[in-house]
Fold this sequence. Notes:
- By secondary structure, chain A is mostly beta strands.
- Chain A has no helices and 11 strands.
- In chain A, the strands form 2 sheets. In chain A, strands 2, 4, 5, 9, 10 and 11 form a 6-stranded mixed beta sheet that branches. Chain A has a 5-stranded antiparallel beta sheet with strand order 1-3-8-7-6, with no helix packed on it.
- Chain B is 0% helix and 53% strand.
- In chain B, strands 2, 4, 5, 6, 9, 10 and 11 form a 7-stranded mixed beta sheet that branches.
- In chain B, strand 7 and strand 8 form a beta hairpin.
- At the A-B interface, strand 4, strand 5, strand 9 and strand 10 of A face strand 5 of B.
Amino acid sequence: xxxxxxxxxxxxxxxxxxxxxxxxxxxxxxxxxxxxxxxxxxxxxxxxxxxxxxxxxxxxxxxxxxxxxxxxxxxxxxxxxxxxxxxxxxxxxxxxxxxxxxxxxxxxxxxx
Amino acid sequence: xxxxxxxxxxxxxxxxxxxxxxxxxxxxxxxxxxxxxxxxxxxxxxxxxxxxxxxxxxxxxxxxxxxxxxxxxxxxxxxxxxxxxxxxxxxxxxxxxxxxxxxxxxxxxxxxx
Lengths: 112, 113
């Protein structure tokens, strides 16, 4: 079955610097890759997603890149701010099993 | 518009008991998914309902069950609780399903003693 590995589990960066979180997936049939942000005491919230027919997508300070050959995708956050501190989850979806498979999460800490 | 609501927010049960959790999706959303979240394990998919039908189920034992009503509200039930069932249970709603943006509720924190 599909498996998603996410690294690192914890990432600490200086405010203003960039942060990169990486995920790899096992099934080449996966075709949808969302990223969710979870703040303390809240449910996850979609921040950006990408489909398999696109290599990169940007939304202001956030970008996601997808390498289908290597079966990995990454979240890039530039000019990090204190409000970026949260747990970030990647996920992958295949039409055949109709569910999202989630990574274990990355705790992002922004140091002032 | 009102977000996804889950009740209760916190619950303490003892082993062997059963529990029912409730989820009210965003108005107009017909898909409701349930997830179990434990530290370091990410989100584990339990099941998804669409228009009162279970469309998919994750790898959980039969003690975990759910249903969806005609107004799209959903409940999940866990029978014969075990200590390992202690977790945050999240509900998410969307218009068409898991490939659509999912809106999560705040979760129900279940503690089994």
